[in-house]
Design brief:
With about 650 residues, this protein is of the alpha/beta class. The protein has three domains: about 15-280, Rossmann fold; about 285-470, ANL, N-terminal domain (Rossmann fold, 3-Layer(aba) Sandwich); about 475-655, 2-Layer Sandwich (GMP Synthetase, Chain A, domain 3). Strands 4-3-5-6-7 form a five-stranded parallel sheet, with helices on both faces. Strand 1 and strand 2 form a beta hairpin. The protein is globular and about 75 Å long. Mean pLDDT is about 90; it is low at about 1-10 and about 650-655.
Length: about 650
């Protein structure tokens, strides 16, 4: 590690870091990608040559300094190279979510004025072609995968490999221009522009400089002692700041290897084959894996199931303490070691987590039970609190101080303060430059001294100095009796159950809370199969009496747990419905990072919320949906409203005090 720490001086851009890595770790793997079932590998020296050829090709195509180059597709080395090549020629890379519909892409491409677009395949090319007449600045599109593209009009279309070939052919002619452009890059040059997920309105373009990205990567890598020998699996959207800092920022700072899965469908298999040492996933990934583990155990034999639950209970008792180096009795250690041989080790290997030295989850709060489950297995899973505007890192959890109920202490070089209303503010080397073409939003988010308002409510614990997040500041409210309303706290407890995929709580300003629930089709479908329950659709299964009763038992258990918290006991769920459809980003109900758009959900299902509060036993509703091919339709349903058990007197506990 010492040889890498040459200081940030001279290492003030991604192309500069690439040149250093090619010189220092030239023969070490930089990228791997699985294609047609075989892992392809590129060293840092080979990567530098690929990126140089692409950069020369972009200059040859007419990319100018300051141009915006949009990049759309799944995680592939070529698309990561595109981001670095764009910066090398003085342009600004703008990654987009590959699952965004054409209309969403039109907004982002139009807003940044992208002249050039690099796409992964025909599907992404078709979306851009569909909206091409709305994009007045658009000039050229480069596609990576040529399948299906042969008969397209190639006036403005170019194959990725051809652009590289043209770059190589023009090497002697253009290399001086490329070197001149790279030499101009410094800490204040724009590194990337990432668009926010748009939970409250149109996405905003967050401009991040080289200082933001490289300093954040340096500080976070040193904090977790990351080395050039790490391996990561890059599978999260490239448009998300988390993937950018892990797969580009830290990868280029440390010089470690980025592995790209063959597809989303093979991700779990590829994860097991790579066995990453450093891993990052949002809560939904960990929730999904836990659901799959529990489903498989239900299908296992009685002896295997009994052994699993027996050792899991022991891991829950002592696993976290052993991981953190706290004192644990000899017999407990021996039993844990036996559990590691019989259960924990094989389970971690099955998940692909056997080699993880540091794991992170962020993006939204993770349920404490889910978090503790992974740590009890000996996986060093931590939480971090961050934002796109912070270049990810606001707080981190030091080893030995990892807890489910806090997000840790301020990250290196990050200052945090909490205002009188409880809102969290920070400033750091990662603080974003501006929102592109939006000075009003920039001014309302970042003040003249560089402090950024996060929009989250929280407080520092006395003694430990750890930050606790209550909820989004705009979502935290008060019940009619004055007690606190914090929906995320209850929603995360509900989502711990494998049967529950999503939950949305309502109750601000009301005398009681009600909830929408989405079942997890995989988990509940598996249960239905085992119990010989036939169903034809998600809607039919979601309304099945036995499913409603199971969900009711989960809600009752969560209410019991919530009632024990004097600050939040008023948030117990009195009534709920299991929705007839999954909340979906294509229907505008969630962001592309799967965060619920509460206001939209509240407006869209207003008739169901009214029925939950007026005492109705059933409610009939019609909902507009978007099909995979973009067509609109509607589904009708009559939903059963279920009453849940609420702990007597707990609702008024806070008010009484």
């Amino acid at each position: 590690m010492a040889q890498m720490q040459t200081g940030a001086q001279g290492m003030q851009s991604l192309p500069a870091l690439l040149q250093r890595n090619a010189a220092q770790f030239g023969n070490a793997p930089a990228y791997r990608e699985k294609e047609f079932g075989i892992w392809q590998c590129w060293t840092w020296a080979e990567t530098a040559k690929e990126i140089e050829a692409l950069a020369l090709g972009l200059i040859n195509l007419g990319v100018k300094e300051g141009d915006f180059v949009a990049i759309i597709g799944r995680n592939r080395p070529y698309l990561y190279w595109s981001m670095v090549a764009a910066q090398a020629v003085g342009a600004v890379p703008v990654p987009l979510y590959q699952d965004a519909v054409a209309e969403e892409m039109a907004y982002v491409l139009g807003h940044c004025g992208a002249r050039f677009v690099i796409v992964g395949d025909q599907e992404q090319a078709d979306k851009v072609i569909e909206i091409q007449d709305q994009l007045h600045q658009f000039e050229h599109m480069i596609y990576l995968d040529p399948r299906g593209m042969r008969k397209y009009d190639h006036t403005q279309l170019h194959q990725f490999s051809h652009i590289q070939d043209q770059g190589r052919a023009a090497h002697d002619e253009l290399i001086g221009e490329l070197q001149s452009r790279q030499a101009k890059l410094d800490y204040d040059s724009t590194c990337v522009m990432l668009y926010t997920s748009g939970t409250t309105g149109k996405p905003k373009g967050v401009v991040l400089s080289n200082r933001n990205v490289i300093q954040s990567a340096k500080n976070s890598s040193e904090f977790d002692q990351l080395t050039q020998g790490e391996n990561i699996l890059s599978y999260l959207p490239m448009a998300w700041v988390g993937d950018f800092i892990f797969s580009i920022g830290q990868a280029y700072w440390c010089g470690f290897c980025v592995n790209c899965p063959e597809s989303q469908d093979t991700m779990m298999t590829d994860l097991r084959e790579i066995g990453p040492t450093y891993f990052f996933a949002p809560p939904r990934v960990f929730e999904g894996q836990l659901t799959n583990v529990m489903i498989r155990m239900e299908d296992a034999g009685a002896l295997k199931r009994k052994m699993f639950h027996h050792f899991l209970a022991h891991a829950k008792k002592v696993g976290g303490d052993i991981l953190d180096g706290r004192p644990v009795g000899l017999m407990d250690r021996l039993k844990y070691a036996l559990g590691n041989v019989l259960v924990y080790g094989p389970l971690k290997d099955t998940l692909g987590y056997g080699r993880i030295r540091v794991g992170y989850t962020a993006g939204e709060a993770i349920g404490p039970e889910i978090f503790d489950f992974y740590r009890s297995l000996g996986i060093n899973l931590k939480q971090l609190y961050g934002q796109t505007e912070a270049t990810v890192f606001i707080t981190v959890q030091p080893d030995g101080e990892v807890r489910a109920d806090t997000v840790g202490v301020p990250a290196p070089e990050v200052e945090i303060k909490i205002d009188d209303s409880g809102e969290i503010h920070y400033r750091s080397p990662g603080t974003f430059v501006e929102y592109f073409n939006n000075p009003e939003s920039t001014a309302s988010t970042k003040d003249a001294e560089g402090w950024v308002a996060t929009g989250d409510a929280g407080f520092f614990e006395e003694g430990s100095g750890h930050l606790r997040i209550i909820d989004r500041a705009k979502d935290v409210g008060k019940m009619a009796d004055g007690s606190m309303f914090a929906p995320k706290y209850v929603e995360n407890k509900l989502k711990f159950y494998p049967d529950i995929l999503e939950a949305v709580l309502f109750g601000n300003g009301r005398d009681r809370c009600v909830a929408f629930i989405n079942i997890d089709l995989t988990a509940v479908g598996n249960w239905a199969e085992r119990n010989n329950i036939a169903y034809a659709s998600y809607q039919e299964l979601a309304g099945h009496p036995k499913v409603l009763e199971t969900i009711r038992s989960h809600v009752t258990a969560v209410n019991k747990s919530v009632a024990e918290d004097p600050m939040l006991s008023g948030c117990q769920v009195h009534r709920f419905v299991v929705l007839h459809k999954e909340l979906d980003a294509d229907d505008g109900e969630m962001t592309r990072t799967r965060k619920v758009r509460r206001r939209i959900v509240e407006e869209k299902f207003d008739d169901i919320i009214t029925a939950l509060y007026d005492g109705s036993e059933k409610v009939s509703t019609v909902t507009e949906v978007t099909y995979e091919d973009g067509r609109k339709g509607s589904i009708k349903a009559t939903l059963t409203i279920v009453d849940a058990d609420v702990k007597p007197g707990a609702v008024h506990k806070v008010a009484a005090e």
